[in-house]
Amino acid sequence: MDQFQFPQTRKHQTRHKKRLTQGQVRLLETNFNFSNKLDPESKSRLALELGVPPRQIAIWYQNKRAREKNHSLEADHKALQQQLENAVAENAKAELNKIHGVLKAFNSSSSCEEVGSSSLSSEQNLEKEFYAALIGVRDPFVATDGYDFFGSSYDLQLFVEFYM
């Protein structure tokens, strides 16, 4: 079988790239901070100064720019995510305050022992507003699917008692 092996061409030989030393990396970082684009003169000068091929310098610059871009995108993403979380928290707090207001109005209305149709209709309106605030409906008197949620106040009273 050895007689059929072909000699390795230069393309297929594995070359081990030398890693850059900390001093070389520091010099590249300094030059990168000065200018993140590499012109041919600078590339040749750095290659001679560091004792590495110019192509390795060019690749290092390219990789460094990619790392910086990724880092920048991650930072932007974290900032946007934090803004979203803050907005959601503020919105939840506002909704909770609205529900507490409706609950207070509902409790003050239901604690009064008024008799009459006017107090009954205002109590029903408060129940509707309270339920609408819980489910996020803008118009508490109109059900979106036609179902009458407010047929009896028993479920609402159980809900209020449970969460109070």
Automatic annotation (TrEMBL):
GO molecular-function terms, A-Z: DNA-binding transcription factor activity, RNA polymerase II-specific; sequence-specific DNA binding
Record-linked SUPFAM superfamilies: Homeodomain-like
Keyword Kinase among record annotations: no
Domain of life: Eukaryota
Coiled-coil region(s): 63-97
Gene3D superfamilies (UniProt xref): Homeodomain-like (1.10.10.60)
GO cellular component assignments: nucleus
Subcellular localization(s) per the UniProt record: Nucleus
Pfam name, any one: Homeodomain
Predominant localisation class: nucleus
Keyword Nucleus appears in the UniProt entry: yes
GO biological process, one term: positive regulation of DNA-templated transcription
UniProt xrefs under SMART domains: HOX
Keywords: Coiled coil, DNA-binding, Homeobox, Nucleus, Transcription, Transcription regulation
Known DNA-binding region: 13-72
Domain Homeobox: 11-71
Family of the protein in this entry: Belongs to the HD-ZIP homeobox family. Class I subfamily.
Function: Transcription factor.
Name listed for the protein in its UniProt record: Homeobox-leucine zipper protein
